[in-house]
Amino acid sequence: METEQKIWKKIWAVIDANDNVKILQSEIQNLMLHRKEVLKELNDIDSA
């Protein structure tokens, strides 16, 4: 049987991983937003 300490270590590892996923999702959203802005600027240059 696992010790309580080992179980908590696993729980914290899952929580940390979940936080990292949230950070990555936020970064991806920022990149997509930036991509939209860049594409709009390129389109504006093309239209000029």
Query: SSE string, helix = H, strand = E?
Result: H
The number of domains: 1
Shape verdict: rod-shaped
Question: Quick one: how many beta strands?
Answer: 0
Distance between the termini: 70 Å
Largest sheet: none
- Which regions contain 5 or more consecutive residues with pLDDT less than 50? none
How many individual helices? 1
Q: Determine the mean pLDDT.
A: 96
Estimated radius of gyration: 21 Å
Derived from helix and strand composition plus strand pairing, the structural class reads mainly alpha
- Strand content range: under 5%
Tell me roughly what share of residues is in helical segments.
over 70%
Description:
This protein is an all-alpha fold. It has one domain (1-47). 92% of the residues lie in helices and 0% in strands. The longest helix has 44 residues, at 4-47.
